[in-house]
Design a protein that fits this description.
Length: about 280
Protein backbone atom coordinates (compact mmCIF):
# COMPACT_ATOMS: atom_id res chain seq x y z
CA UNK A 1 0.00 0.00 0.00
CA UNK A 2 1.26 3.44 -0.89
CA UNK A 3 1.75 6.24 1.62
CA UNK A 4 -1.57 8.10 2.04
CA UNK A 5 -1.62 11.44 0.21
CA UNK A 6 -2.78 14.67 1.90
CA UNK A 7 -6.30 15.94 1.24
CA UNK A 8 -6.89 18.86 -1.14
CA UNK A 9 -7.00 22.20 0.69
CA UNK A 10 -10.47 23.57 1.55
CA UNK A 11 -11.61 26.75 -0.23
CA UNK A 12 -10.87 28.89 2.85
CA UNK A 13 -7.41 27.42 3.45
CA UNK A 14 -5.73 30.78 2.83
CA UNK A 15 -7.92 32.49 5.39
CA UNK A 16 -7.25 29.77 7.97
CA UNK A 17 -3.46 29.89 7.61
CA UNK A 18 -3.34 33.70 7.54
CA UNK A 19 -3.96 33.93 11.30
CA UNK A 20 -1.27 36.02 12.99
CA UNK A 21 1.35 34.12 15.02
CA UNK A 22 1.61 35.05 18.68
CA UNK A 23 4.78 34.46 20.73
CA UNK A 24 3.72 31.83 23.27
CA UNK A 25 5.98 33.02 26.08
CA UNK A 26 6.97 36.69 25.74
CA UNK A 27 10.60 36.80 26.91
CA UNK A 28 10.21 40.28 28.42
CA UNK A 29 8.05 38.70 31.12
CA UNK A 30 10.98 36.62 32.42
CA UNK A 31 13.00 37.84 35.43
CA UNK A 32 15.51 40.54 34.45
CA UNK A 33 19.24 39.77 34.80
CA UNK A 34 21.61 42.24 36.47
CA UNK A 35 24.42 42.28 33.90
CA UNK A 36 26.56 44.80 35.76
CA UNK A 37 26.70 42.56 38.84
CA UNK A 38 27.20 39.43 36.71
CA UNK A 39 30.15 40.99 34.85
CA UNK A 40 31.72 42.24 38.09
CA UNK A 41 31.41 38.82 39.73
CA UNK A 42 32.80 37.05 36.68
CA UNK A 43 35.80 39.38 36.64
CA UNK A 44 36.45 38.57 40.30
CA UNK A 45 36.20 34.78 40.10
CA UNK A 46 39.30 32.65 39.57
CA UNK A 47 39.61 29.30 37.88
CA UNK A 48 39.70 26.58 40.55
CA UNK A 49 39.14 23.33 38.68
CA UNK A 50 39.03 21.82 35.25
CA UNK A 51 37.76 18.58 33.73
CA UNK A 52 38.89 17.28 30.35
CA UNK A 53 36.27 15.23 28.51
CA UNK A 54 38.02 12.74 26.22
CA UNK A 55 36.65 12.18 22.69
CA UNK A 56 33.67 9.76 22.52
CA UNK A 57 33.41 9.75 26.32
CA UNK A 58 31.60 11.78 29.01
CA UNK A 59 32.69 13.20 32.35
CA UNK A 60 30.87 14.54 35.41
CA UNK A 61 31.64 17.91 36.99
CA UNK A 62 30.31 19.70 40.06
CA UNK A 63 29.55 23.42 40.27
CA UNK A 64 28.30 25.31 43.33
CA UNK A 65 25.51 27.87 43.10
CA UNK A 66 27.03 31.24 42.28
CA UNK A 67 30.09 29.80 40.53
CA UNK A 68 30.73 30.29 36.83
CA UNK A 69 31.76 27.47 34.51
CA UNK A 70 32.83 27.29 30.91
CA UNK A 71 32.77 24.64 28.21
CA UNK A 72 35.81 25.30 26.01
CA UNK A 73 36.71 24.06 22.54
CA UNK A 74 40.29 22.77 22.53
CA UNK A 75 42.40 21.09 19.86
CA UNK A 76 39.64 21.05 17.22
CA UNK A 77 35.98 21.63 16.45
CA UNK A 78 33.89 19.37 18.65
CA UNK A 79 30.25 19.15 19.70
CA UNK A 80 29.33 18.55 23.35
CA UNK A 81 26.09 17.09 24.72
CA UNK A 82 25.33 18.63 28.11
CA UNK A 83 23.12 17.29 30.89
CA UNK A 84 22.49 19.30 34.07
CA UNK A 85 21.03 17.98 37.33
CA UNK A 86 20.35 19.66 40.65
CA UNK A 87 23.23 18.28 42.71
CA UNK A 88 20.99 17.45 45.68
CA UNK A 89 18.21 15.79 43.66
CA UNK A 90 19.28 14.27 40.37
CA UNK A 91 15.64 13.86 39.30
CA UNK A 92 15.45 17.66 38.92
CA UNK A 93 16.98 17.98 35.48
CA UNK A 94 17.39 20.31 32.56
CA UNK A 95 14.06 20.69 30.72
CA UNK A 96 15.02 21.09 27.08
CA UNK A 97 11.45 21.40 25.80
CA UNK A 98 10.36 24.22 28.11
CA UNK A 99 13.70 25.99 27.65
CA UNK A 100 13.09 25.85 23.87
CA UNK A 101 9.57 27.22 24.33
CA UNK A 102 10.87 30.09 26.48
CA UNK A 103 14.04 31.07 24.60
CA UNK A 104 13.82 29.56 21.10
CA UNK A 105 15.51 26.70 19.29
CA UNK A 106 19.10 27.81 19.96
CA UNK A 107 20.55 29.40 23.09
CA UNK A 108 23.02 32.21 23.63
CA UNK A 109 23.99 34.85 26.20
CA UNK A 110 21.14 35.73 28.55
CA UNK A 111 19.21 32.51 28.02
CA UNK A 112 18.66 30.21 30.97
CA UNK A 113 18.53 26.44 31.30
CA UNK A 114 15.27 25.63 33.11
CA UNK A 115 14.54 22.57 35.22
CA UNK A 116 11.78 19.98 35.09
CA UNK A 117 8.42 20.14 36.88
CA UNK A 118 7.51 20.63 39.65
CA UNK A 119 10.56 22.88 40.08
CA UNK A 120 10.82 24.94 36.87
CA UNK A 121 13.67 27.18 37.94
CA UNK A 122 16.85 28.21 36.14
CA UNK A 123 19.63 25.71 36.72
CA UNK A 124 22.16 27.90 34.92
CA UNK A 125 22.31 31.18 33.01
CA UNK A 126 24.44 31.62 29.88
CA UNK A 127 26.71 34.58 30.59
CA UNK A 128 29.04 34.50 27.56
CA UNK A 129 29.04 32.87 24.13
CA UNK A 130 31.92 33.43 21.73
CA UNK A 131 29.69 32.17 18.90
CA UNK A 132 27.00 34.80 19.56
CA UNK A 133 27.88 36.37 16.19
CA UNK A 134 26.55 33.30 14.31
CA UNK A 135 22.83 33.96 14.67
CA UNK A 136 20.88 32.01 12.02
CA UNK A 137 22.48 31.13 8.68
CA UNK A 138 20.93 30.85 5.21
CA UNK A 139 20.01 27.21 5.85
CA UNK A 140 18.14 28.15 9.02
CA UNK A 141 20.94 26.72 11.15
CA UNK A 142 22.05 28.07 14.51
CA UNK A 143 24.46 27.05 17.30
CA UNK A 144 23.84 25.50 20.76
CA UNK A 145 20.46 23.93 20.05
CA UNK A 146 17.73 22.59 22.29
CA UNK A 147 15.93 20.85 19.42
CA UNK A 148 18.00 17.69 19.19
CA UNK A 149 17.87 15.12 21.94
CA UNK A 150 21.23 13.32 22.00
CA UNK A 151 22.61 10.61 19.74
CA UNK A 152 21.61 7.24 21.18
CA UNK A 153 22.08 3.55 20.40
CA UNK A 154 18.34 2.85 20.17
CA UNK A 155 17.64 5.26 17.31
CA UNK A 156 20.87 4.18 15.64
CA UNK A 157 19.66 0.58 15.77
CA UNK A 158 16.14 1.57 14.65
CA UNK A 159 17.58 3.12 11.51
CA UNK A 160 19.51 0.01 10.59
CA UNK A 161 22.77 0.66 12.43
CA UNK A 162 24.78 -1.85 14.38
CA UNK A 163 25.43 -2.07 18.10
CA UNK A 164 27.29 1.16 18.85
CA UNK A 165 28.19 1.90 22.47
CA UNK A 166 29.64 5.42 22.47
CA UNK A 167 26.63 7.53 21.52
CA UNK A 168 26.20 10.56 23.77
CA UNK A 169 23.31 8.83 25.56
CA UNK A 170 25.59 5.89 26.32
CA UNK A 171 28.45 8.14 27.41
CA UNK A 172 26.23 10.28 29.66
CA UNK A 173 24.72 7.14 31.23
CA UNK A 174 28.11 5.54 31.79
CA UNK A 175 29.57 8.68 33.40
CA UNK A 176 26.56 9.12 35.69
CA UNK A 177 26.72 5.45 36.71
CA UNK A 178 30.41 5.75 37.56
CA UNK A 179 29.73 8.90 39.59
CA UNK A 180 26.82 7.28 41.44
CA UNK A 181 28.64 4.00 42.02
CA UNK A 182 25.84 2.06 40.40
CA UNK A 183 24.95 0.40 37.11
CA UNK A 184 24.04 2.00 33.80
CA UNK A 185 20.58 0.41 34.01
CA UNK A 186 19.88 2.14 37.33
CA UNK A 187 20.68 5.67 36.17
CA UNK A 188 19.72 5.56 32.49
CA UNK A 189 16.29 7.08 33.19
CA UNK A 190 17.96 10.17 34.64
CA UNK A 191 19.74 10.97 31.38
CA UNK A 192 17.77 13.61 29.50
CA UNK A 193 17.55 15.77 26.39
CA UNK A 194 20.66 17.89 26.12
CA UNK A 195 21.91 21.32 25.29
CA UNK A 196 23.91 20.63 22.14
CA UNK A 197 26.93 22.82 22.86
CA UNK A 198 28.74 24.09 19.72
CA UNK A 199 26.46 22.00 17.46
CA UNK A 200 25.04 23.71 14.36
CA UNK A 201 21.53 22.49 13.60
CA UNK A 202 18.17 23.56 12.30
CA UNK A 203 15.05 22.45 10.54
CA UNK A 204 15.25 22.34 6.74
CA UNK A 205 13.40 25.21 5.10
CA UNK A 206 11.27 22.94 2.90
CA UNK A 207 10.30 19.87 4.97
CA UNK A 208 11.32 21.14 8.44
CA UNK A 209 13.54 18.10 8.93
CA UNK A 210 16.13 18.19 11.67
CA UNK A 211 19.57 18.71 10.13
CA UNK A 212 23.12 19.27 11.30
CA UNK A 213 26.09 20.87 9.61
CA UNK A 214 29.73 21.40 10.52
CA UNK A 215 30.10 23.29 13.79
CA UNK A 216 31.56 26.79 13.41
CA UNK A 217 33.36 26.39 16.77
CA UNK A 218 37.14 26.64 16.76
CA UNK A 219 39.70 26.06 19.53
CA UNK A 220 39.34 28.88 22.04
CA UNK A 221 35.59 29.22 21.62
CA UNK A 222 33.59 28.83 24.81
CA UNK A 223 30.11 28.87 26.28
CA UNK A 224 30.01 30.27 29.83
CA UNK A 225 27.36 29.77 32.51
CA UNK A 226 26.50 31.03 35.98
CA UNK A 227 25.21 28.18 38.15
CA UNK A 228 21.84 29.18 39.63
CA UNK A 229 21.77 26.16 41.97
CA UNK A 230 24.29 23.51 43.04
CA UNK A 231 24.82 21.54 39.86
CA UNK A 232 25.96 18.17 38.70
CA UNK A 233 26.92 18.50 35.05
CA UNK A 234 27.61 15.65 32.65
CA UNK A 235 29.23 16.42 29.31
CA UNK A 236 29.76 14.04 26.39
CA UNK A 237 32.23 14.76 23.59
CA UNK A 238 29.94 13.55 20.78
CA UNK A 239 31.24 10.75 18.54
CA UNK A 240 30.13 12.97 15.65
CA UNK A 241 33.08 15.33 16.27
CA UNK A 242 32.04 18.59 14.58
CA UNK A 243 28.86 16.77 13.41
CA UNK A 244 29.51 17.55 9.74
CA UNK A 245 28.75 13.99 8.58
CA UNK A 246 27.58 11.34 11.05
CA UNK A 247 27.28 10.93 14.78
CA UNK A 248 26.91 7.31 15.83
CA UNK A 249 30.17 5.68 14.79
CA UNK A 250 33.93 5.90 15.13
CA UNK A 251 34.27 7.52 11.67
CA UNK A 252 34.36 11.22 12.56
CA UNK A 253 37.49 12.98 13.79
CA UNK A 254 36.87 13.83 17.45
CA UNK A 255 38.54 16.11 19.96
CA UNK A 256 38.38 16.56 23.73
CA UNK A 257 36.37 19.31 25.43
CA UNK A 258 37.44 21.27 28.49
CA UNK A 259 35.20 22.28 31.40
CA UNK A 260 36.57 25.10 33.56
CA UNK A 261 35.07 25.99 36.94
CA UNK A 262 35.54 29.39 38.58
CA UNK A 263 35.06 30.47 42.19
CA UNK A 264 34.71 33.74 44.07
CA UNK A 265 31.95 36.03 45.33
CA UNK A 266 28.66 35.62 43.40
CA UNK A 267 27.02 38.60 41.71
CA UNK A 268 25.94 41.34 44.12
CA UNK A 269 22.34 40.83 45.23
CA UNK A 270 22.23 37.41 43.56
CA UNK A 271 20.50 34.49 45.30
CA UNK A 272 20.27 30.81 44.33
CA UNK A 273 17.22 30.12 42.18
CA UNK A 274 14.12 29.00 44.05
CA UNK A 275 11.73 26.36 42.81
CA UNK A 276 8.38 27.49 41.45
CA UNK A 277 5.94 28.48 44.19
CA UNK A 278 2.96 27.16 42.23
CA UNK A 279 0.57 25.33 44.59
CA UNK A 280 -1.93 22.71 43.51
CA UNK A 281 -5.50 23.44 44.69
CA UNK A 282 -6.44 21.68 47.91
ZN1 LIG B 1 26.23 12.84 20.24
Amino acid sequence: METPTPRPAPVDSGERSAAQPVVCYPPDQLPILDWISIAAARAGQKRVAEVVVPPREARVFEVKAGQFFRIVSIEGSQVGDLNLHHALDLTERFFSGKTRALHGTHLTTGDRLWSTFPHLRPLATITDDTLDWYGYDADGGGVHDVIGTRCDPYTHRLLGGGQYHNCCHSNLTRALAAYSGTSEREVEHLVHDVLNVFMCTGFSLDLHQYFMKASPARPGDHLEFLADVDLLGVLSACPGGDCSEEHSSDVAVCHPLLVEIFDGPPPLGWLPAEASDYVWPA
